[in-house]
Amino acid sequence: MSRGAHDYVVLDSEEAHAQVVGDFVVEGVRRGECVMVAGLGTREPRLWARLRRAGVVGEDWQPSDTTVVRVVAPDPATLPDLVESVLAEGYAGVRFTGAITAAGENPFEEVIGRLVDERPMTVLCPYFRDLLLPGQRTSLAVCHDAEHDASAEFDDGVFRLTRVGQVLHLTGELDSGNADALRAVLRTTLSEDGGPATWDVTDLRFIDVGAADSLVAAAAGPPGLTLVGASRLTARLVRLLAERHPDRQVALADEPPGETPR
């Protein structure tokens, strides 16, 4: 068996956790790995919703001891046996992540360090910046293989804006009262090289009419704006607003089933 990977990430908000950990879990499911999560607590529903929006589980999906994503007890002593059991089921690899919400050294780290040396196990340890003790950032770099990049163009804990290549990812909630967030989206969009803008709104849980209207009016001029992953409600709202600005060009990729563009 090949050696695994043991990375960490330092997060600034709950929105960052939902996005970064969600992406890590989704990637594991798509690779055919078994994903184990521990210590999520009240974060579980948000992660399950993220998996559904990504299309890797069905609408009625719930985790169990036999599903591809499993909730495990936050007890590092049980982890080696759990990993062996999963690999015995035939999975090519194991992923492990969760939420570290206590300051100081995490008891999982020593156990994980041994496991990844011997097993195909990919680990992401999520730490919250405001819980790090003085000097802990240095110790994290020593005991992990690499730091996962969780930088954002904007993150106020409610709305988060990140860039992957030429695509902007809008996550969380965006309303017309959040002027800083609106400015961040427009500033980042309009600073492009003049090519068409693409926004991934798969994880945008809410946008009000005022915010949508402002963004469509400002950002959808030639050469246009493409929205990826829009929910049925967001798609309908954007189409209606685009009609109010006939000089604006908005395209909806991955049109929701049952909807016909107008």
UniProtKB/TrEMBL annotation:
Signal peptide: none annotated. PROSITE patterns: STAS. Residues 167-216 form the STAS domain. InterPro entries: MEDS_domain, STAS_dom, STAS_dom_sf. This is MEDS domain-containing protein. It comes from Geodermatophilus maliterrae.
